[in-house]
Structures are given as C-alpha cells and as structure tokens.
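Objective 1b. Sequence-to-structure analysis of LAME_0H05028g1_1.
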Amino acid sequence: MASFHIQPDFLDCIKDVSSGVYSEDTFFINVEPSANQVDEYRVKVTLNGNAVHFDAGEGNLFERLSDQTFSACLDGKRCEFRTPKYDLTQTSTESLGPNFSSADSYKSCGNTKYVVGDSFGRLGIFDDRQRLVLAVQGHYADVNTVRFFPSGQVVLSGSADMQLKIWSATDGHCARTLRGHRGPVTATAIVDRGRNIMSSSSDGTVKLWECASGDTVHTYARDSSPSDAINTMVMQDSGAGQHEAESHQQEFGTAGKSVLAGHDSGVISKYDIYTKNCVLETSNQFMSSCRAMALSDSPSDPYSVYAGYANGILANWDLRNPSKAVHHLSGTNDSEVTAVHVQEGQLFVSFEQSSAVCFDINPRLGPFEDSTYLVSGTNRISAFAASKEASETISVGSEGFCAVY
C-alpha cells in the first residue's frame, strides 16, 4: 500500500487564499509507493472568482469533496484525506498530557462522556462538550488502557506500572487497586455488568478478576509458551449457550464469552473465559509481534478479527480458519501498527511513523479498500473511541492531540 502525506497546515494555505491574504499559495503531498521512494507533488491554490481552484499539475487532480474531505489523484494513485470535524487538542498540559495513550467513551440518554489516559499516569474525564471535568494522578507510568463500566459512573485503568485501578468517574476516588501482573498491563475488558474484569499483560498472561474482593479468579496463558508477551486483547460475546444456567464461584456473566490475545510471537490465542480452555491459536503467519486488534461490529460477520503487527502489516482473520489470514495489507515503510478500531463498518488504523488511515469494510472486496488518510498535523494518533454521533470517531495522541473525525 502506498503511503500519502499531506502538508500539515494545508488548510491554512486554502484559508489564506480564500480570504484574500494571498493571491496564491502551494502545499505538498508526498507519496511513498515503496520504502525507498518518495514522490513529492505540489498543489497550487488560487482564487477564481469566489471559488478556490486547485492545480496539482498536468494529469493530476486535487479537489474538495466536503467540508472535511479532500480527494487526490496523482499519477494514477488515488487517495482521500479527512480533516477533523472538531479539533479539541489540549493546549495546556498542566492537568493532563502531553501525550494521550488511551481513550474510551460512554453514551447514555443522548449524552456522551470520555475518559483518556496519558503517558504520565494521569486520567481525565471529559463531558459531552469535551471539557475536562476531572483529572487524577492514577499511576506511576503510561496508562495503556481505560474503560468505562456499564454504569458510566466507574472507570477501569491499566498501566505500565503493572497495576489496575477502579475509579469513581464522579470524584476520582480509587475504590480498588488490583495487583498480580509481573509486566505492564496492556489491555482490559469489562465482563457483563462489571463484577468481573479481564486484563492482559506483557508477562504473557490474561487474568480474570473479581472486583469486590480484588482476587484473581483465573490466569490464562499459552501452554506451549506461557511467557509469550501479550500486547493487545479483545473480548468476544457469543451468548451464554449451554452454560447459561450455571455459575462459578466469583464469576458473574462469564458464560459464552471469550478473549483473544495478541502475542509478541505474532500468534493470536483465544480462551473461553468460562471453561478456561484455549480454543484456538492462529499461526504466526507474519513473523511479527501482534500489536493491536479489533473485532468486527457487524452481526453478519461474527468471526472477523482485524490485527495490526509491528512490521506494519494489517490482517483480517476468520476465526473459523486460524491457519492463514483471509486478507492482509503491507505498508510501505514497515511502520508499527499502534491502534485498530472498528466502528459503523469502518476500520481505523494508526501507525507509529505515518498517518492514520480509515478503510471502508467491504465484505465483497475485502476490508482494505477505499482508504482515507486522517489528517492529524504532526501528531501521532495512539487511540480511537466512539464519539457521541454514530458516524463520528474521537482520536487522541501525542502533544495533547484530541480530535473528532
């Protein structure tokens, strides 16, 4: 896949010309068709009457499709760019930041609130207008994962300091600290109504916790490689099935649920939370660490998993055939995939050294068609979460970056 990079302040160039500050201006678009090649294109901006005109050179095209979307066709290579609908970047890092590392959202009665974690161990709660209403010093290191409990009144956080904490989203009181991992906590999940939670760690384990007591109910790990570090984890709910009427001590609502863990080896393992069995392991087809995962949100596609790897590969797995990925896409510069998010039939992916991309998931053509690059200036996007509108996604990242696409 070719990579596209547009000048971070290209919108300012357009505004300066349209407002009459300058009669013309230019901005660049860099295209990387391969790891060793960068092609630079210049787009001239002029005003023709009241309309802004773009000239990308002979045979090339650049045009504005909507307020936030632009399209380019450069020597036959096509892409779209999407700018933020709202830029909520935090200019002050006194209470939070500078680098946001995780995010989650909670919707109720038409209102949405957000929680973000930063690289200094702090958590922040934002209201429906994205105003910071609560900030707490939660951990001693990066907050790698944050989750709202189903009530929306409680937040779970997990950190590189190897701890999990349960917080009041109202006053910031820490109700419980969970210790037991021997490596950084990398991901979390809330089971059912929240009496149990799941966590993964670079120590190679997934743990099932009981919140009231703080006890570890069970520890899951690969039999063949129990210390194979886990970088990402997602929970899957397939219905209670045959265990619906049964219960385990200190377990509530675990029947019919499973977790998938992405390992340093590149293997993705799946565990039945209730039976404690490892039900499948994918191959390490791409010989690279699995760094991020997301499940399909389509009821008609319950077996699809999207995984990103340290070598820049993005893969679509069908859990019915764990021996080989159904589709995969290679980046041009081997930039590590840092986040994967699925929402309303769109796949959002961020990379360590390049732009974040949004794909339309097309069951007929595959999931990696019709790519749109998310314009985030010079900031790297580290996490995505659903926004208050179903069609909007909030993203957070470096230097206090926070924007809605």
